[in-house]
Design goal:
Length: 147
């Protein structure tokens, strides 16, 4: 699972107030890449699950146009229909980003990510959780399973 944090994941101020009430103060977007082998030098992408404004976007196998060699191409975007942000598949070649594993994080940042209430929506209706949080990670994997 790859995760990205986006502050202010809600409609831009140029949109009418009726559209700006949607979205979140904090946004977590994530992509899950399903492999046939955990060894990075000898694995094939079997499926992909992207967090979406509602539910998941799943591909198994992913379309070739969304791959650059053995790398998945995704883009962050604002969804005007549901008034929120998400990641989507793209044909555009982008930049590579640094990756850090959950176990590589020092204890303090890991504890802060685990214990922060990310949901600022009224009555926590969005159920916004950091996807790699202890107790959330396996639930996300199960709900995102594309096969």
């Amino acid at each position: 699972m790859y995760g990205w944090y986006f502050p202010k994941a809600r409609a831009p101020l140029i949109l009418p107030l009726t559209l700006r009430i949607f979205g979140h103060r904090n946004g977590w977007e994530y992509a899950i890449v399903w492999l046939d082998n955990p060894t990075p030098d000898n694995s094939t992408i079997l499926g992909v699950s992207l967090s979406a404004a509602v539910g998941w976007s799943k591909e198994s196998p992913p379309k070739e146009k969304y791959l650059d060699g053995d790398n998945l191409k995704v883009a962050y975007y604002y969804n005007h229909i549901v008034g929120g942000t998400a990641v989507k598949y793209t044909e555009e070649v982008g930049e590579f980003q640094d990756v850090i594993t959950w176990d590589q994080l020092p204890k303090l940042p890991r504890d802060l990510l685990n214990n922060t209430d990310w949901d600022y929506t009224p009555f926590n209706v969005a159920h916004l959780k950091m996807p790699m949080k202890d107790g959330v990670f396996m639930k996300k994997l199960k709900s995102a399973y594309p096969f």
